[in-house]
Amino acid sequence: MSRNTDAVILPAPGTHTATVVWLHGLGADGNDFVSIVPELGLPKNHGIKFVFPHAPVQPVTINNGMPMRAWYDILSLTRMEKRDVTGTQNSAARIAGLLDAERAAGIASEKLILAGFSQGCAMTLYTGLRYPHRLGGLLALSGYLPLHDRLAAEAAPANKDLPILMCHGQYDPVLPMVLGKSSAEILGAAGYPVDWREYPMQHQVCMEEIEDIGGFLRQQLALG
Fold it and tell me: 107 pLDDT band (50/70/90 cuts)?
């Protein structure tokens, strides 16, 4: 494992054939989901490199302007018309750059998975559905689809039928499940194959969900 100012990186065991870029939630950092990887039930030499980037530190409006790691500023959780479009676009460009770097290193775009939790989930959906090269799938955990009114005009044709696993806690007090479920319905209506899963938990992950994530990775990356 390597750590730097930009990301935590878990090198692939065995031959590097796939990469998962996993985005943390508001106020966390790239270390947040590192410990989950051994719990995914992947084959011993699965060949997946995991990249856990750190979001930049910036003031967050809903937290009284307190600086913290955030992919974009959250102006309101109740008035969805108040959105940090520029911040979202800037982070999306950086995340797309991480995917581009993996392709430049020889990894096929179909072997790239974008994953994220909470605000990281929002960035996963925003970035992945606009990425111009076919991805392997999206893992959208306890979050929502941001700027959904722009998706039809901005969606990349290469990922119009991209498999998406969406997971959410039934008792989530931070981002109520209705936000995630309505996002899944919007995506489904737009033709995306969304696999919606809900769990008896709050704003967190649970073992059943971790097992489902592992199954998704094994299926999409043909790990057997």
Answer: very high
How do the domains of the chain map onto residue ranges? 2-220
pLDDT in tens, 9-36: 999 999 999 999 999 999 999 999 999 9
> In the CATH scheme, what architecture does the domain 2-220 have?
3-Layer(aba) Sandwich (3.40)
Tell me the residue type at 28: A
- Looking at 16, 133, 148, 203, which residue is catalytic? 203
Active site (annotated) includes residue 203:
yes
Instruction: Tell me the angle at which helices 85-104 and 119-128 cross, rounded to the nearest 10 degrees.
Output: 70
In the chain the first and final C-alpha atoms are separated, in Å, by 25
Which is the catalytic residue, given 73, 84, 172, 212? 172
Catalytic residue selected from 24, 32, 91, 118 = 118
| pTM of the predicted structure, to 2 decimals | 0.96
Bridge partners for 112 per DSSP = 19
